Amino acid sequence: MEKLYTLVTGAVSEIGQNVCKKIAANSPLILQGRDFDKLSRFKESLPESKDHLVWQYDFINADNLCFDTASFIESNNIHIKNVVHIAGIAEFFPAHLLNRQNIKTSFDVNFYSILDILSVLAKKKYKSFLNSIVLISSVSVHSASGKGMAAYTSSKAAMEIYAKSIAAEIAPARINSIALGGIKVNKNDGISKSLDSNISSYPLGIGMPDNAADMVSFLLSDNSSWITGQTFIVDGGYSVCKK
Amino acid sequence: MNFYEKLADIFEEDVTDETILKDLDSYDSLSILSIIAMCDKDYHITVTASEIRALDTVGDLKAFIESRK
User: Fold this and answer.
1) Helix H or strand E encompassing A176
2) Cβ pair B34:A94 closer than 8 A
3) Which of A3, A7, A72, A157 has the lowest tally of Cβ within 10 angstroms?
4) How confident is the model at residue B1 (pLDDT cuts 50, 70, 90)?
């Protein structure tokens, strides 16, 4: 029998790595990312490392993603039961510079990528293997977002509503989103530094990658077998705290 | 787009080396974040808001970016 895989997009991001470590023992993984060397090294570090697959792929301008997704499944002779969509990009644009052209990268990575992948997995041929899909979104879709974040938040919002809207169509497979608050990662650019001043708005403190991975793991497991089409805010209380 | 054109886009007015940043109509937290984003994306350098705020003119900003490259 063919093995059933869990596809993790953005697998070598900090949150991606934590998620993979948490679920690698339960299911062989497909590790998607842009950097082949990094993906390969990470694969070797995982439990059951021989079972996992590396899928080096760039979602920006990925006009052939539907075809390439199907080819990847066919050429490896596998099936996909779970998807965790972590790949994401947060590009900064003030409203007067944000237009159809430069919002495209955000939509390519954050939304159109999972749209294409699921258009393949929702086909009759693959659908019966599907179990659970988890999409990483952001609390900034649901509460105050910083200035200049519209490209990011609108692409994440599109993704969440898409998930809700296809839930009935893909049942009995399940699809849910996690709207994450600030997670402490090592990324040290100027924008992240400016956001650090927000820490006092988190009643439970700033999030750790593990906080995200725990929720992903719950939504993939049978413990959430009667939950679909939902968005869960996991933000240490950020959205209910007066700024 | 060159450095001056990018700034003109951010501030919606033309700038020269002598332009004083704080005198620009749309000099605020959003335009400072835009400059930080520009530094990150186009010049691959990490700068902070307080470093930008400490600069006087557009020429100073240019020299500051050069010094970090």
Assistant:
1) strand A174-180
2) yes
3) A3
4) confident
Between vectors from CA A186 to CA A56 and to CA A106, what angle results, nearest 5°?
50
The answer to the question of residue A243 being in a domain is: no
Q: What is the ipTM of this complex?
A: 0.78
**Alpha-carbon distance B46 to nearest alpha carbon in chain A (angstroms):** 5
Q: How many CB atoms lie within 10 A of CB A123?
A: 11
Would you call B55 an interface residue with chain A, using a CB distance cutoff of 8 Å?
no
CB contact under 8 A, B40 and A189: yes
CA distances from A183 to A111, A138, A192 (A): 20, 10, 11
- List C-alpha distances in Å: B16 to A146, A197, B7, B47, B54: 29, 32, 10, 21, 18
Residues of A in contact with B61 (CB under 8 A): none
A101 to chain B, any CB pair closer than 8 A? The answer is: no
Task: Pick A191's closest partner by Cβ from B29, B30, B37.
Answer: B37
A147 within domain boundaries? yes
Structural domain for B9, as ranges: 3-68
- Is pLDDT at A155 greater than 70 in this prediction? yes
Check CB contact under 8 Å for B39 and A96: no
* Stretch A226-239: mean pLDDT: 95
Would residue A40 count as lying in a domain? yes
pLDDT-based confidence at residue A243 (cuts at 50, 70, 90)? confident
CB pair distance less than 8 Å for A97 and B10: yes
Task: Decide if pLDDT at A2 tops 70.
Answer: no
Biggest CA-to-CA distance, chain A = 55
